[in-house]
Inverse folding.
């Protein structure tokens, strides 16, 4: 159950135009009279708005009795504009490249023009949701009061890109893929893709300790099939590739006007930022966010301890979910940074889209 | 330039018989009159005896003026018996599964029956060479005085197996593979295999720091093609799969008589062991060897510092090569453990093949 916000003639960073672009979203709770309780929570790779619901609900950090939570779906995820649901010529392999900034620009219009929100009390997200969170903080310092990226980074590291390219190589190798013009789903390719992912999504000790038993799987092989393959087998291959492309190119310093200067990009963030990398994350390792936080005026890093690796951010492990929930509560109750050097920078750097 | 030792009617752990099995090897230096200077240095995945030569030579830790260095080639590597060089019915996809113990058993016959060596001053090896090193120490406590496994472990961890399975999934997905009965090499599969490997072989900061420039590559993509793809593109696909199988099943506790008891297996090692895991190794992480060393009576771990990850053991990085060279020198000059509890155990556990 979700709504669609249509953006007629939506021009992408690539120059291509989606007419319209369709942004699927769901809201939880109500905007208060002073319009000060809006929280934006973009989705992760191959997820949708329901993927975020473990952190939303009565008694949870994002309590809809208190907050107005907006969850926009990532372009390419099959609900928002995607290869699988866009008419020719932008269907399937004809779907244009989409950037994190394209996502944020569409979300900005949804939030401001459609939902009447001018300030965001918090932007948060996991993994590709974290990439969007950082981009929001850089593109709209005037709107974002707090940001909580988890299991992510302000830009996709070169190593992470190598991982992404290996996923792409596995998926597209399937003869059934036919350059993206497949008539039947390239299931063998998606299974190989899932097997590559399986090594990266959790940490080495997750497998040593057989933590997958906590997810109901009796063996490693059952876990790889029942969790990883099952998670991706129903996805459209071109959708997966579209999202991979968005992920691989993520970089807040590529925002127009910043000339690829990552320190300047991070230095322009005025929000209070609490980044939560996971201790054993293999493709968004904590050092990415530690390095970034040095340049964010009100930036802080709290490492999610444990062996779940990247999937610590999934909400599936109760201990990790509780850690994230507590951090969200803390940040929501923390004061917004006072005007200072960062605010001064903000004046120099108005909204960058 | 290498020699071949033939083992007629060589029975494998699987029950299959290679008649003969052919063990390719090269020796460096001469066995001294007292037969006390022999060093065994098995090879790694997809390498051959020349891959080990960076540590062998005048002035190096393995100086052939002083030591008699024996380098046996791993079964499946294309020089020893392999899918690519064995007659039907054991050719290509018909090649039988080979274990680390099969390799060690063949090497034991080469060393004792052919080369007249009864004691090994040192056994050492990197990665799959380390798997063989541990197996030697467990199977032949009466022969192995010192062992130096680097970038390896006494058994392949479950996470490592997930990585291996992803390599296999990528390689065999190529339609040209044809279940191993390919007529032309499945090059696209090998390239995908190489791309998966690229994310695992080095650490995350290796890519951040663009360390590949030290190997002569100007960009990440050039590195993935020029190093990873180039490294594997000339290999036979079935050979790669044969070695992957050997790697995946490695486990010293599966040695007959040990009933899968890893602590007992490690406790039976009488050699002085110095294990060198690499600090950022993503598939043989240091914790594997730290955990193992607790149970080895004369076991010690020295972590190779730095960001080269698994490839720290390749010899390609001068700092890592110097670290390993120094550790080998140290161990060669260290005394052999005195008879004690470990020797007592040795008496209880004679050679296990």
């Amino acid at each position: 159950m979700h709504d669609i916000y249509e953006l007629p003639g939506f021009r992408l960073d690539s120059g291509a135009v989606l007419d319209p672009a369709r942004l699927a979203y769901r809201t939880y709770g109500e905007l208060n009279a002073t319009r000060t309780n809006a929280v934006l929570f973009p989705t992760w790779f191959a997820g949708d708005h329901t993927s975020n619901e473990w952190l939303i609900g009565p008694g949870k950090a994002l309590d809809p009795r208190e907050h107005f939570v907006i969850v926009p779906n990532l372009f390419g995820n099959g609900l928002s504009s995607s290869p699988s649901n866009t008419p020719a010529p932008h269907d399937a392999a004809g779907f244009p490249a989409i950037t994190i900034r394209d996502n944020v620009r569409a979300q900005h219009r949804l939030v401001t023009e459609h939902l009447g929100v001018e300030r965001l009390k918090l932007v948060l997200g996991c993994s590709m949701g974290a990439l969007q969170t950082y981009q929001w903080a850089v593109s709209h310092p005037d709107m974002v009061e707090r940001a909580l990226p988890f299991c992510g980074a302000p830009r996709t590291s070169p190593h992470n890109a190598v991982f992404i390219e290996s996923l792409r190589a596995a998926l597209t190798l399937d003869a059934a893929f036919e350059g993206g013009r497949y008539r039947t789903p390239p299931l063998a390719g998606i299974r190989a893709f899932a097997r590559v992912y399986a090594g990266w999504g959790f940490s080495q000790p997750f497998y040593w300790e057989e933590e997958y038993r906590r997810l109901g799987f009796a063996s490693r092989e059952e876990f790889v099939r029942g969790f990883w393959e099952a998670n991706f087998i129903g996805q459209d291959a071109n959708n997966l590739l579209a999202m991979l492309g968005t992920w691989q190119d993520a970089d807040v310093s590529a925002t127009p006007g910043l000339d690829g200067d990552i320190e300047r990009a991070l230095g322009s963030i005025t929000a209070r930022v609490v980044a939560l990398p996971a201790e054993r994350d293999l493709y968004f390792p904590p050092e990415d966010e530690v390095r970034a936080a040095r340049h964010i005026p009100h930036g802080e890093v709290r490492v999610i301890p444990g062996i779940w690796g990247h999937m610590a951010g999934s909400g599936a492990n109760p201990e990790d979910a509780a850690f994230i929930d507590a951090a969200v509560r803390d940040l929501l109750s923390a004061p917004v940074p006072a005007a200072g050097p960062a605010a001064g920078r903000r004046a120099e750097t108005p909204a960058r889209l």
